[in-house]
Amino acid sequence: MNSYERVIATLRGENVDCVPCAEMFIDPKVIDKIKPGISYFDFVDEVDIDIATCLTIADPTDKIQWIDQVNGLWRDKWGAVQKNDGDVLSVVMEPPIIDSLDDLENYEAPAPEKAHVLEDAEKLIERFKGKRAIAVVGEAVFAPIQYMRAGLQNLVLDFYDRPELVRKMVSIAVEYHSQLYSKLIAMGVDIVFLGDDFCAKHGPMISPEHIREFILPGFKQVVKAIKDAGGYCIKHTDGDIYKIIPILKEAEVDMLGPLESPYMNLAEVRDKYDVGVMGNINVDLLSRGTVKQVEAETKKVIESTAPGGRFILSSGNSISSAVNPENLMTMIKTCKNYHL
Q1: Which residue segments constitute the domains of the chain, with CATH numbers given?
Q2: What is the per-residue pLDDT for 90?
Q3: I need a surface site. Which of 59, 228, 257, 312 has the fewest CB within 10 A?
């Protein structure tokens, strides 16, 4: 099996020759510490990662619409102002781009055909199609409507005070992402990761009832668009997600992950809820642990989860700049070489 065959078979619940190993994102600083000057594409081939990815959730540095570059302020595709302090992901700032139904009347939604990810995905497809699974890492509805409203606090108040505003914003996000992901899959992308975080370590950020009422209908539409186009959908969210797994299952995602350790037990999630799983080597361990600890934890996760199949090994989130490069390589090499 090559990487592409291994990943697709895993998503389908079929037998594979070994556990696939992948990451939604690897910070370029970590790659450069492992092999200075190497490109992401060459790194994927050299260390034999099974899924090659690109991001829809962060604009390339040379394409950012800066408002104040010195202070890290820029405008995202939704029109929201965000602040970046040097990390890949930014923080949305007040005031909101949408503050009323009247604002929506004059709102110009982003155009899927102008998305920067189309160019990035085309390069991945040219390099890896049929050899490695190709994925884009994006969002569905929960994150975009927070951007439009300048944060979760404003959005939560809208659930009670202005539910129609929420539903109209959701419809904008659904239309954009359904069109974008359908186009990407038609180009040759295999997998869409949906990364809107619903949870933190203590559980859902909003009530499961609000997720079901306001978020689930649009989320289901985006997942359906992905699958109708012939793609696979992997749903990521941070934290303890046990309370909302039945809700996510209604959307018929192919896999949940990366799921965070220590909150989530991969084998338990897969076996109890009949869904594929990805994860979940603790990112803090990868950042501050020893090589021996990382090797032992990787073997432990493989031993507990691999026998049931439908499992991709990864970190519990993604590889941030804080991760020890040697620990990342240990996780990957252990996954490749440890067979039950």
Answers
A1: 3-337 (3.20.20.210)
A2: 84
A3: 228
Q: Can you give the length of the chain in residues?
A: 340
Residues 278, 258: contact at Cβ < 8 Å?
A: yes
Torsion of CA 242, 266, 254, 40, to 10 degrees: 120
Of all residues in the chain, what percent carry a pLDDT higher than 70? 100
Both structure tokens of 46: 């050299």
Q: What is the DSSP letter of 21?
A: B
**Count of beta carbons in the 10 Å neighbourhood of residue 153:** 10
What's the pTM value of the predicted model, to 2 decimals? 0.96
The identity of residue 267, as a single letter, is A
**Dist. CA 260–CA 265, nearest whole Å:** 9
When pLDDT is averaged across residues 223-245 and rounded to a whole number, the result is 98
Q: What is the pLDDT of residue 88?
A: 66
Task: Supply 338's token pair.
Answer: 């440890």
With the C-alpha atoms ordered 281, 284, 285, 290, is the resulting torsion angle positive or negative? Answer: positive
Strands 199-200 and 203-204, bridge-based pairing: antiparallel
Using alpha carbons only, what angle is made at residue 11 by residues 25 and 211, rounded to the nearest 5 degrees? 70
Query: What tokens does 44 get?
Result: 């994927």
What backbone phi and psi angles, to 5 degrees, belong to 237? -150, 145
**Helix ranges, 54-195 (H):** 101-105, 117-128, 142-148, 152-161, 163-187
CA distance 249 to 199: 16
pLDDT of residue 85: 81
pLDDT at 246 > cutoff 80 = yes
Residue whose tokens read 């790659």: 31
pLDDT digits (tens, 9 = 90+) for 117-143: 999 999 999 999 999 999 999 999 999
